[in-house]
Design brief:
With 131 residues, the chain is mostly helical. The chain has two domains: 1-51; 56-130, Winged helix-like DNA-binding domain superfamily/Winged helix DNA-binding domain (Arc Repressor Mutant, subunit A, Orthogonal Bundle), CATH 1.10.10. 82% of the residues lie in helices and 0% in strands. The protein has six helices and no strands. Helix 2 crosses helix 5, helix 3 packs across helix 5 (101-118) and helix 4 (90-97) crosses helix 5 (101-118). The longest helix is centred in the N-terminal third of the chain and has 49 residues, at 2-50. The radius of gyration is 33 Å and the shape is rod-shaped. The relative contact order is 0.06.
Length: 131
């Protein structure tokens, strides 16, 4: 029976060591995953911090806007530029151009519709950035 007790203790010791080694491996793995996750978060943070909103509109998008505006009727282009680039209200534009506010609204709506159509491929990009 002496050998049985020694054998039982040896088996218990070995099982305990196996369990503890396994726990150590799990802890190391969790730490590696945590480190990878931390690096990924650091990269995302640094990328967002380096993001310059002025550069979000790429040259390509600016070219599309410019081309779209150049293809519009002259009055639509003037009204849109006064509205968006000069930050004038519809009433101010109507008074300046001696037209009705409804006409101003019509031209702005028409221009925005054309821009949405021409920039449709970039919509997911804007949604991702701003929402």
């Amino acid at each position: 029976m002496e050998n049985f007790d020694g054998l039982l203790l040896t088996m218990l010791k070995n099982r305990s060591l196996d369990y503890l080694k396994h726990e150590l491996i799990k802890a190391d793995t969790f730490q590696e995953i945590k480190d990878i996750h931390q690096r990924e978060l650091d990269i995302r943070i640094s990328t967002l911090e380096a993001c310059n909103p002025d550069e979000l509109l790429s040259v390509e998008i600016q070219e599309i806007v410019t081309k779209t505006l150049s293809l519009l009727p002259k009055q639509s282009k003037i009204i849109f530029e006064l509205s968006r680039y000069s930050n004038k209200t519809n009433k101010e534009i109507a008074e300046e151009l001696k037209i009705s506010i409804k006409t101003v609204e019509y031209h702005i709506t028409r221009t925005l519709k054309q821009l949405r159509t021409n920039l449709k491929d970039y919509l997911p990009f804007f949604l991702f950035l701003f929402y």
